[in-house]
Specification:
The chain is mainly alpha-helical and 537 residues long. 75% of the residues lie in helices and 0% in strands.
Length: 537
């Protein structure tokens, strides 16, 4: 008997309770804990507190992967702290200030930087968020807007680049083949992954949506309110907001009055070099003699490489700061520890998010939701059903990887069966699993990547979730329409994707005009490219 058969519809209570409480109370850790506790009550049929604590401890002690991620997060915090105290982030800002003299240019630079940093979503949010925050503040871009740009060019970009995401996706495809019993009859996993890219429409449209929002400078929903507040009154955070971190408060003043680029380039260069070298080394070692590039990528230990790289960033920051005479060893170590401390809130939420993921696994939440979705599947509806089943599971559990693990072994056999034991529907099944998982991840306040986006941009976490949700929902609706058209007509997605981009642009224009008129605000929040530093009203 599976967890879904045992607990049924009540299995969705813990994640939904946590999500609703987080949105209403804006207290993510408390809300997550109460959601976990409700799961303990359901699971045990009693007060459930012992089960709740056991689940929480197991999230820390029984998963090597989770331990590595927590260590990476702490090292990234320490590395960012060293870069900030040594003036590296300020030096980047100073070097770019003469060129990035408008909010649009800062937004475009952040967008491009995020797309170039394609090999990891965690390091993407850490480096891009920290580097661009001061420039965004100077141009009066709201922290909510910066968090949105960072978040939507982290995981979506990582799904297409040389990253741990792609390796994980390939492993999920193999699991789907095994579940369907078609390993010798279907395309190679990497080939299917490439075929699925045009159907990963949420990620493609999410990246494009960021560009449309930045270039047109049009906003709607709660983001319009945030941008209007920031631009008109200089408040990059709303009154009473609780930002996830503040480098100034946590780390103190910079150790120099003359920031130099080397204090950014050396630690970050070390991170990049070690991550790429470590990935190549582990990939070659595991792939055997004379491996092809695909084999190297498929066998690379990207998480391990990121662990080594984040450590090297801390070490290089310490060495360059001490040898450069900006601080002694004791002060450097205190800075690193301050950086660790700065990540405690994010680490706490990550542990709670992983724990509620354990709860949903034990109660069978994902399997229950997927089984319900299966009852309405037809060839035409298959892409949209998989998309929204994945979205609901990811939103409820806060983990896109966990969602892929739950849905892919079900979606691939379904697509094979509905497609008449032919591979026709496999690419769309794989692409829509990934799309739905990342959409749910973007909208969930218990998602690790969403949490880290708030952390490294210094935004209020729930404010980030609430403002981003309007844009994510817009993107998923456009993706749904395009997938429905594909299901009905089988027109190539290479034709549908440009149409979807045009529809996105039209929606952004129309919604921004309507919302601004409704709120009696300028659709562009009174921003003008001629003003590099707006005056207060």
């Amino acid at each position: 008997m599976t967890g879904a058969e045992t607990f049924g519809a009540i299995s969705v209570v813990p994640p939904l309770l946590a999500i609703v409480l987080a949105i209403v109370t804006r207290r993510a850790i408390l809300s997550l804990f109460l959601g976990i506790w409700s799961g303990g009550i359901i699971f045990t049929g009693s007060i459930g507190i012992i089960q709740t604590l056991n689940w929480t401890v197991s999230s820390l002690g029984e998963s090597l992967f989770n331990a590595k991620i927590l260590t990476i997060v702490m090292f990234l915090g320490g590395g960012v702290a060293m870069i900030w105290r040594l003036g590296g982030a300020k030096a980047i800002g100073n070097a770019a200030t003469s060129r990035l003299d408008s909010q649009r240019k800062v937004g475009l630079a952040t967008w491009i930087f995020g797309m170039l940093w394609f090999f990891g979503d965690y390091s993407n949010t850490a480096i891009v968020g920290t580097t661009m925050r001061d420039m965004a503040d100077e141009m009066r871009m709201s922290r909510e807007k910066l968090s949105y740009i960072i978040d939507s060019t982290a995981a979506p970009v990582a799904t297409f680049g040389i990253s741990s995401w792609v390796v994980y996706q390939l492993s999920m495809i193999e699991q789907g083949y095994e579940a369907a019993g078609i390993s010798g009859q279907a395309p190679e996993a990497f080939s299917l992954f490439l075929q699925s890219i045009p159907f990963n429409m949420y990620c493609l449209f999410a990246i494009v949506m960021v560009g449309i929002i930045i270039i047109t400078q049009r906003d709607f929903g709660e983001m319009l309110d945030a941008e209007h507040r920031s631009w008109k009154h200089g408040k990059v955070l709303r009154d009473n907001a609780v930002p996830m971190q503040s480098a100034e408060d946590s780390l103190g003043e910079m150790a120099t009055d003359s920031p130099q680029l080397r204090y950014f380039l050396l630690p970050v260069g070390s991170l990049i070099t070690v991550v790429f070298a470590g990935s190549a080394y582990t990939g070659i070692a595991a792939a055997g003699e004379n491996p092809a590039l695909i084999d190297i990528v498929g066998n690379a230990a990207f998480v391990d490489a990121l662990l080594w790289g984040s450590f090297s960033m801390v070490a290089m920051g310490l060495i360059s700061g001490v040898t450069g005479g900006l601080m002694d060893l004791e002060e450097a170590m205190e800075t690193i520890i301050d950086g660790f401390s700065m990540m405690i809130t994010a680490a706490s939420i990550l542990v709670m998010a992983w724990t509620i993921g354990t709860v949903t696994t034990e109660l069978g939440t994902g399997i229950y939701v997927t089984n319900v979705a299966e009852t309405i599947i037809s060839p035409m509806l298959l892409p949209v059903v998989i998309l929204f089943a994945s979205a609901v599971i990811a939103f409820s559990t806060g983990t896109s990887w966990g969602t892929m693990a739950i849905v892919t072994p079900i979606a691939i056999p379904l697509a094979w069966s509905i497609g008449g034991s032919a591979p026709t529907l496999l690419p769309v099944a794989v692409g829509t699993v990934f799309s739905g998982a990342i959409f749910g991840d973007h909208c969930s306040p218990i998602s690790d990547t969403t949490i880290l986006s708030s952390t490294f941009t210094g935004a209020d976490h729930i404010d980030h979730v609430r403002t981003q949700m309007y844009y994510a929902v817009t993107v998923i609706l456009v993706a749904s329409v395009m997938l429905l058209v594909w299901g009905a007509t089988r027109i190539t997605p290479l034709v549908l994707l440009p149409i979807g981009v045009g529809l996105l642009y039209g929606l952004v224009y129309g919604l921004s005009e309507w919302d601004a008129s409704r709120k009696n605000l300028a659709p562009q929040a009174a921003r003008t490219e001629q003003q590099s530093s707006p005056s207060d009203d």
